[in-house]
Amino acid sequence: MAAGGQAVPESRRRTLYGRSRGKTLRTGQERLVAEALPKLEIGPEELRRPGNFAFEPSAIWLEIGFGAGEHLIQQAKANPEVGLIGCEPFLNGVAAALAGVEREGLANVRLRRGDAQALVEAAPDAFFSRVFILYPDPWPKRRHNKRRIVSDAMVEGLARVVKSGGEVRFATDIDDYAGWTLRRFLGSSRFRWAASRAADWRTPWPEWRPTRYEAKAHRAGRASVYLTFVRL
Ligand SMILES: C[S@@+](CC[C@H](N)C(=O)[O-])C[C@H]1O[C@@H](n2cnc3c(N)ncnc32)[C@H](O)[C@@H]1O
């Protein structure tokens, strides 16, 4: 579905790059995918219906490409009044996030196994107060750059679905991807970069805990860039 609830024409559908499954799921993970995922999964069309959560959330946040879900679970635990939607195509990651939801007894998480661009296109206007894009796949080869989740179309979609005053938080350990993302958001008249000091882009957000990919990057000696874009 596209903006306004229209179906996305086949020709405009984005190819999903990267792995959609890895190691065979363990029995417990298979059970979670079979039993818990259907209850928690939110389809693009459901986004437009009221009552996506069993309570009235104070805000709705989206995490794009949550990996194994550590950050999503941490945010959901720390902010029980917020509704968290996580979108991730990798089945093993979805299974890990489901285990986290069950372990922590969270009632404020909904998941989508699939492409975040499609989810963003389907979301109502001004739906999200915050969107996280943390360590997206870098696609470093020039000819693969167009596979990056941050694209002109994504920025345009986020400008529509993020509320005025809401923010997009982006982190990467790939300097070229930081520059790529800055250029796209700064090229949009609907976002401003919330950096008041030069050092801000090396400073994580308050109460930040490194994600799995951040930990991996830092072990390998790569520094991180943290960018916050505020929707005007
Ligand atoms: C490098 S991992 C980072 C995972 C996690 N955010 C972290 O920091 O540990 C990038 C993640 O983005 C997911 N991803 C790739 N394409 C995506 C898409 N189109 N929509 C949503 N997630 C996507 C991948 O499956 C992968 O789990």
Describe the structure.
Helix content is 32%, strand content 19%. It has one domain (3-231): Vaccinia Virus protein VP39 (Rossmann fold, 3-Layer(aba) Sandwich). The longest helix is centred in the N-terminal third of the chain and has 14 residues, at 27-40. It has a seven-stranded mixed β-sheet, sandwiched between helices. With 232 residues, the chain is an alpha/beta fold. It contains seven helices and seven strands. Helix 1 (27-40) packs across helix 3 and helix 2 packs parallel to helix 3 (91-104). It binds S-adenosylmethionine. S-adenosylmethionine is lined by residues 16, 18, 64-67, 87-90, 93, 115-117, 134-137, 149, 211-214.
Helix and strand topology:
Layout: H1 27-40, E1 59-64, H2 70-78, E2 82-87, H3 91-104, E3 109-112, H4 116-122, E4 128-134, H5 152-161, E5 162-172, H6 175-186, E6 191-193, H7 212-219, E7 225-231
Parallel strand pairs: 1-2, 1-4, 2-3, 4-5
Antiparallel strand pairs: 5-7, 6-7
Helix pairs in contact: 1-3, 2-3
